Amino acid sequence: MAQKPKVDPHVGRLGYLQALVTEFQETESQDAKEQVLANLANFAYDPSNYHYLRQLQVLDLFLDSLSEENETLVEFAIGGLCNLCSDGANKEHIVQAGGVPLIINCLSSPNEETVLSAVTTIMYLLSSPGSGPHPELTAVPVVQCMLRFSLSASTRLRNLAQIFLEDFCSPSQVAEARSWQAHSALGIPLPRTEAPQQP
């Protein structure tokens, strides 16, 4: 178990978050990185922290962590982004920083929590007020993933995918994705937490 971050309890919220970011950047321990990223993702749930997290470039830290080989870091990073992206300024930063392809890549994770957060993040990005067009979020490969997920043994993943298909895709997008049976999204495996399907 990783130790608690070495933070002076009297430094205030910004100081505490800064200490977490510094610890994440300086530690060599994967356990400590995981614990710190989990803490930052939890702080991302509270809108009163958004300004501090932007100031400390935590959104970029989360985006960078999506490319890690460590699945736990990816899970906490996409969870943090999911918590942040309902805010317009955070959504804009994620899009401008090139986060959309990184988030879409999380759909192929073997970790169900990562996939659930990725789907939810995509839905937030599509539904934010003033959201500009992001056709890559409802491109055929993404819709194919959602069609596949809508058949999942996991109730949470199945329901979330069905909401995505009904609320964020036109019937023609769904039909087009169904007609492209040989494309790459069908090769994306379902998360490993599911029971194997019988042949």
TrEMBL record:
Taxonomic classification: Eukaryota, Metazoa, Chordata, Craniata, Vertebrata
InterPro entries per UniProt: ARM-like (IPR011989), ARM-type_fold (IPR016024), Armadillo (IPR000225), ARMC7 (IPR042462)
Domain of life: Eukaryota
Transmembrane intervals: none
Species in which this protein is naturally found: Catagonus wagneri
Gene: ARMC7
One Pfam family cited in the UniProt record for this chain: Arm
ARM repeat windows: 57-99
Protein name: Armadillo repeat containing 7
